[in-house]
Amino acid sequence: MTLRYPRPLRPGDRIGVTSPSSGVPDALRGRLDVAVGDLKARGYEVTVGRCMDGSGHLSAPAAERAAELTAMLTDPGIRAVVPPWGGETGIDLLPLLDFAEIGRAEPTWVVGYSDLSTLLAPLTLLSGVATVHGNNLMDTPYGTPEGLLSWLDVVEAPQGEPFTQTPPGRYRSAGWDDFAGHPEVRDPRLDTEGTWTRLDGTGDVNVTGRLIGGCTEILAPLAGTPYLDTAALAPGEPLLVYVEACEDSAFTICRNLHGMRLAGFFDRAAAILVGRTKAPDSRTLTQHEAVLDALGPLGVPIVADVECGHVAPYLPLVNGARGRVEHTAARSAITQTLN
Q1: Which of 51, 204, 276, 323 could form a disulfide linkage to 311, CB 3.0–4.6 angstroms apart?
Q2: Which residues lie closer than 8 Å to 254 by C-beta, 6 or more apart?
Q3: Closest CA to 257 of 237, 233, 279
Q4: Confidence (pTM)
């Protein structure tokens, strides 16, 4: 499989908005309008699809969601697809998507996280097109702290030129903004100090590999299936695997990571990145200990509290990109190159 990168976005390009999982309730449409307005202010045209209903946990029947997503991904006039956010059961789309057809089309950026992990990683692994695990459309109006890039910065980056992100040293400890009452909110309210943590020991980390990963709760059900088979991703090269917990307890995350390891998902990992999480510890097991219990036997560096999860701010990672992770007492950074 030849890995391909969509060309960089430029003003005048069209961005498609559809909800492969959960749609947007009427009370939150104001936030959607603000986010779409920000894309237009940046010079982009925006097409909002029909699969956007937020009255239930799915925006439309699976066949309709799959058809709309496929149409956007194979339309040469649409250069990126950005769902409003994730959801719960987007896994039902996988058997309805023709990954070969999508792979034959001109590559289109797909951006998101959370339940969108169930599409992002398989799209890269089965169609050969790089995808972006990053802040979603409803988060787009938030300001980007120093050291990080927004998903728009990433998809606009010149192909082949490396870009580096460093932890800003602050994160949001709790709570969600009231998009219904304040759809225009732009301050991510990073109220707590914190940076990356090495879990497996001490010493400097300087590791390279191809990036792949996503939300643990979403990827674990795919482990051992063709949808999460990394064999065709840059054969012969090591991988930088990233995982993050949304809300499951430490016991559940521990079991999920064990299962993913036993299924071979981490076999080529040169290092593991673990997203910062608000998911609960268990009585005798913390989230960090859960990761070590499951992934410590790999004998590779494990760097936690990375900004690649459900805790703001967000550090976009490109599935398939060449990455370099550095972590020392003086500096932490990840550099990505789209080649």
Answers
A1: 276
A2: 285, 290, 291, 293, 294
A3: 279
A4: 0.97
